[in-house]
Amino acid sequence: MWSDASGKSRNIILWAILFLAFALRAAYLIQLSGTPYGEMLMVDAEVYHLKAMRILEHGWIWRGASYQAPLYPYLLAAVYSLIAPSPEYVLWIQVAASVATVWLIYLIARRIFSERVALASGLIAALCGPMVFYSALLLKPTFAMLSMFLALYLIVRYCTGGSVWLCAAAGFSLGAASTLRENLLLMAPAFALWALAAVRPLRRTAGFLAVLALGVALALSPFVVRNYLVEGELLLTSYQAGPNFYIGNSPESKGFYTRFDFARPNPEFEEADFRAEAERAMGRRLRPSEVSRYWFERAFEGFAEDPWLLPSLLATKLALYLNDHEIHDNYNFYFMRSLAPVLWAAFVPFGAILVLALLGIYCSLSRRPEFTLLYVYIAVFSISVVAFYVNSRYRLAVVPALIPFAAYFVVQGWRSFIKWGWAKRFVVAVSAIAFGALVFMPYSDRGIHVSEFKLGVAYQRRGELDAAAARFERSMAIVPDYAPAYNHIGEIMDLRGDRPGAMRMYERALELSPDYAAARLNFESIRSELGKVPETSD
Predict the structure, then answer these.
(1) How far apart, in Å, are the Cα atoms of 23 and each of 120, 133, 349?
(2) Least crowded by CB within 10 Å, which of 25, 32, 388, 438?
(3) pTM for the model
């Protein structure tokens, strides 16, 4: 038993957990690197890489206000300049960062609970599927979690007898996290309100607020200064908030990322498209802050026109946020397990952590500052995600805060449950079962066809045409009206000299999507050779 183990034995167990966390993430990265996906950067990952390369080419100030959270491309550029311009080195650093986050979760749980709960927390974090999944992808959630939970740990240390100057470091770490995930900036005022209610005496509260604000300001200042130099505006991080709010709160919104006719679903083009649409509507050139404000106003106009829009969207997004399913955007968690089977070993899902954590919170309710700090973080972070739109990587940063409570219930909280009277046990058990049914409610996700298609594109770029065609055919079998798959099958036929077959595929793609530019270009390039008039011409 952990409770009977010596300090040395507990250290051995901790190091074994950290080694497990590293081994699992390293094996995942190695497996993924051996697949076509390891050679292909998807959407946001490609944009971050390109931005890093532009920073190296054009200078660290570069041009234009930040549309996305600004820090991650600079981190990539720093690694590229110090080692080599290859994502491989960044991904190994992210693996280390993910293991460090496991360690921070252990430290937080030890401070607020016990050694046994802390070790259980570390084990759950080591085996948490979503945490492992994002550690080897060129995306920012892993660094954002590390920064945010370093801040939380430092504040927890302060609550349990540490120096107030720990909060300056916590503020800096929180500010850094906000430049990786903008909604984390909401934690600064949330933690300020928490301090006013939870930290005593008042002199100690004032010291906490002052040094926390100083740390946040220091972390944000380089990006505030940069945005002012290039645009003449005081932007704390970026100006994507308005477009993102509209994506999740328009009449067309579905609760997750929603595509619009005027905007290409890629950050490389999304910024220009949302700006162009706002400027077209306003009839003048807009500053970045005005672009963001325009899309907020458009969303609120929709709420005014349809009073049911906001509550219905919030209910939909809350259900998606609580559901165990990992809603994908760039990379599909479930599809990636077929490419990197070691992901199956990261078997602890979000849903199990959530249900156990809520039971743990109920069994351990406390007014101690370190407990209420985590309550505030979980609540405010969850609200900030649901207010915009939901996907797996946006939700991920709540998981490390839930894990200590889940571990507490598994290790000792269940004993409180047994001691309750039968009526209370019945109510809690029925509530937990009902909530669990909601969390694990099957989610219909047709998006796997996009992952099959992207893998086909990766094979096509490598010249493995048979493997590419097989993936495109799988994509069409899942969703028969997916135009890009027909277009790429046509390209393979074209490369093999089957011009009539290619023409039929291009025609089908254009029937499904008349504005599909790539299919139109491919069609027109061989139409004259075959002497055929397009049936889908405008």
Answers:
(1) 18, 13, 19
(2) 438
(3) 0.92
